[in-house]
Amino acid sequence: MNWFDFFNFFFSAHNEKRPADAALCGRSMVEMLGVLAIIGVLSVGAMTGYSKAMLKYKLNKQSEQLTYLLNSTYQLLSETKFTEPEGKASNITDILIKLNLVPQEMIKDPNSKFIYDAMGNEIFVGWESAPEHEHDFFKITLFGANNRVDDDTCLNVLNFSKEMSGILWQTHFIYSADEDDSDHYAVRTYGDAYCKNSACLKDLTVARIRELCDTCLNQTTCNIRILWY
Hints:
Layout: H1 3-15, H2 19-24, H3 29-78, E1 89-91, H4 93-98, E2 115-116, E3 122-128, E4 137-143, H5 151-163, E5 170-176, E6 183-190, H6 206-217, E7 223-228
Antiparallel strand pairs: 1-3, 2-3, 3-4, 4-7, 5-6, 5-7
Helix pairs in contact: 5-6
């Protein structure tokens, strides 16, 4: 054997892979499919967790925005900036916008009489003269998509109203009946100072809130309103 044949034999033998070595150099199709399945499960879990986190963020933001609007009306009165509009009931959202008493993220059009919360509901802040109640009052009305608030908004607003029951007059639903399509004000639940002979916001349980929202969402349309003096 000459040197050329020797080296040729040597390198051929050295580079030849044994069956056991070959198995270590790659992954089977079954293994790859298993890895992809695991990645898929983890991705779905991550997206579900992200969706839940985003919903919780939006609901918390919605509550903050409602609190801001409540405080804005008190500021409006305390600084004597508010001149009662003509008429028994008025939308004062544009007044609050012009006085910088509305969070900027709620404003889509500075000239509009409507603003939008973190859940996408259209909102107007109203004032109404109510001699029969011996007080004028303010109100926030939330209109959902297709004139119907979603379930998460309903639950959140009722929980918010319960927490704010010490300063609210009442919270109620507004829905249209099929037979005449006129507005009906239903399920009035009252703040601490006004619920002696009526349902109290502070007494709402988780089960009762769930029941009220189910009743609302079974209507053709259903929006929600918060009122305070």
